[in-house]
Every structure is written in C-alpha cells, then in structure tokens.
Write a structure and sequence with these properties.
Elements (H helix, E strand, L loop, with lengths): L1 H31 L9 E2 L10 E2 L6 H24 L15 H34 L2 H16 L7
Amino acid sequence: MAKKSAAKSSSDDVTKTLIAEVVKRKQEIADADRPNWKTNCLFSFTGSGTTGATNLHVESDVGTLIRIAAFVRAQDDYYDNMTREMQIENAPPFKWMGFSAADWIEDVKTRLSKVQIASKRKKLEDLERRLNTIISPALRAEMEQELIMKELGIDGTGK
C-alpha cells in the first residue's frame, strides 16, 4: 500500500510541476501580447492610399508579412544606393507611406510575434486540458485547498 501511495505522490508532484510551468508560460505570453506599434499598420505595395492595403493588425499569413518586410528593406536599400550613385548630400531619409523602413520592419516583427503567440497559447491550452484529465482526486483536492487558503490569506502553516 505504501508503494502505491508513493507512486501517486510522485505522479502528483510531476503533475503539479507541469501545471506550474503551463501557468508560467501563459503569463509570459500575456506579458508579450501588448504590442507598441510604430506605424499605422496599413501597408500598401503601391505606397499610396489604402486600396488593397494590408492591415498588419489582422494579417496572419507569415509569407505575406515576410514579403512586406523584404519589400520595405529592398526599397530602403535602393533609395540609399541611388542617393550615393547620384552623389546627393543631405537626402531626406527614406519613408514608405510616411514611416521609416525600420518602423515597418519592427511592426512586421511585432505582428509575427503575435501570430506565434496565438499558436503558443493554443498549444498551452491543449496541454492544460490534458493535464486536467490526469490530475488525481487527491491532487485536485489539495490544489483547491491551496486556492481557498490563498483567497483567505492563510499561508498554509495555519497562521
């Protein structure tokens, strides 16, 4: 009987560790999910107007996001090469739709991060669901007691 209890305890310890890791990762995702946009997030390959524009707030296709960043980087490089070739001093900095290439690229990186966060969040929700199916009744009761003690401001030592 002692072996069975020890095995349950060990399994419960592993489950508690896994649950704590899932909670930690969910918090990391929540912290990273507050973007600071540099542009208006409406990108157009034509550089004018919003007709056919891509809204970075909602674009989820990784290929499209990469093409936008590559396009802006290439336009910035072409601009710099032309100013050198034409020996133009004090040329105005490159802007695409009113924003620098660095700002566009930063916003694409931010959006790509958000797309990946959504994927990570779904994976963590799946892991959490799977962990909930293997929690033993004893561990479930212990976890509930810990939550109640926390809500009551009791530290677990009876103080």
